[in-house]
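B., you asked whether I could sanity-check this one before it goes into the benchmark set. Here's the sequence:
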Amino acid sequence: MKNNSFRYDISFLRAFSVLAVLFYHYKFQWFKSGFIGVDIFFVISGFLMTKIILSSFDKGRFNIWDFYRRRVIRIIPALLGVVVVFSFLIFLFLQPQIVNFFRSAFSSVLFFSNIYYYLNNGYFDASSQYNFLLHSWSLSVEWQFYLIYPLILLLLKKLYTTKKNIFIAVFLALAFISFGAMMIHRSYDPDFSFYIFYPRAWEMMLGGLAFLLEDKIQHIPKKVKLVLALTSLSAILSFIFLFHASSWPSLYTTIPVFFTTLLISLNYEFIAYKNKIVTYLGNISYSLYLYHWPLYVLILFFEVDNSWKYRALAILVSFILAILSYEGIEKRNYSDKAKSVLAVSLIIFIFSFSITKVDAENYTDENKNLINTTSGYKYSKKAEHQYKLDIKHLSHKDYKTIIQNLDVPVSDKKNIVLLGDSHAGMFSETVNNIFADKKEVNLIQITADATYPMENSKSAYSNSVNYFNYIFKEYFPKYYKNIDLIIINANYSGYPEKEIKNNLKITEQYFSKYNIPTLYIGMTDVYAIDFPTYYYIKKKYHANMYTEEKKFKKTEEFNTFLKNYLGDKYIDLLNVKINKVSPENYPYIYDTNHLTLFGTEQYKNILSQNVLKSSINRNNKKND
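And here's what the prediction gave me:
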């Protein structure tokens, strides 16, 4: 018979795990791998769900709908609370981020945020740290586990009640399949193995194994259990403080998962476990997990995350809100209100989704253009036209489709090629406007996402790499005689310094071989956070944005290097005075470094002058 008394060891693990995650997120350097707190939570969830379901099998009274109902009233109310609280906070204090917040909210309240984030960005990406509900991915994984896991156990119910050893073997086989899926996926798509349910299920199933082996482990002598418990705690602590992961999950994930499983199955209770503060921390761990991250993101936007004072304040507020959430929401009795909880969740989903689809002018006037630009410009018709997305600029389509639409040089015209990554693509409409009334010019656009234009470029975007391989191996060798000028632009500072220097050298050597002149569109401003939000904060709060100042200095240094290296071929845009916001509050950059058409058009004159000068020099050389 399993011991049904309060598990102080699990309460301790909850407290320990949430603190590990909190200190990791708040950049306390000792907690190098504090994120494994989430893996510990997975093991705990697997243990508890397995215990609930299989214990009900033993008693012959498992009701799957009651199981789901209990999960609804346990998980959803506090989650809805944090969504509502931060909806108001963001609208009041950080308005440009309201649509981005609701994009995360609608996927979080219906527990598919892990899939949404997988399709849009990686957990360890720099941009992800500005997502207020990024941490909801783990809740979505657990929720999907809660939906599917009892169905699997129901299918195996007869095996469990009649042939338990075979059941355990099948159980382990399923866990091993999940683990194998994680190892396979991480080899070519680490984000998939991080976010998606089934490559993570093995962690929760090992928690279930702790329940299945609990009775057998209880026969181990107490002194041996003490040694094993101390070893497990030491291993977990050592892992958090000493191990630094380059990607997660991985083979190394088995270490904290195994020792957490062992610790739970041992059910060894140290006196410290029963400390009232530790127990209460365990009680509020869910609400603390919910509130600590969005508060960190808030101080991150205001660039006070490096200040001990503000980090301590955010942590304090996290605890206050967690206590209020636990006492005011989690402890309430929702036994007969599961349908109401689901209804509220659906209403918040519909509201959140609707906000992401309507123009900001429907709920604000002053900041509508800032909100619309930072949240929607990238996906707008304006951007499609500006870049000529997937017509001339390779983004989502297969590169072979773009090749079919690729223009070729015309013998009786000046053929000018716009070449580069998205930073070249963003100038497409402006460069086209420059040559709009020049019938003698044939402009050819060869641009692609996030990849420096060269043969065998280093990039995570294999489609773009293949496209540029075709361009440099086949297109240019075939048409070089009729090409008069190559205009190049790239997110220069987005590549490692050593790499970009080498790339520029290779570029110059390549086009020198074909005697084609090159012209480089210079760097433009780069921000740590999206410009519309940066502008809003600076204007409303007169905040000192230290990270931005550091970023500007670095950009200026890089710009100076490019000017010195490329000489007259480099068009220095960084020192051109332009309007960063129009009279209607329309920004010149829509994210951290990509210009809107309002931005690129302000560089039209200097680009036109330099292209004209380069063309004249080319003609003089031809005449010579």
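One thing to flag: Strands lie at 393-394, 414-420, 441-448, 483-489, 518-521, 570-571. Otherwise nothing jumped out at me.
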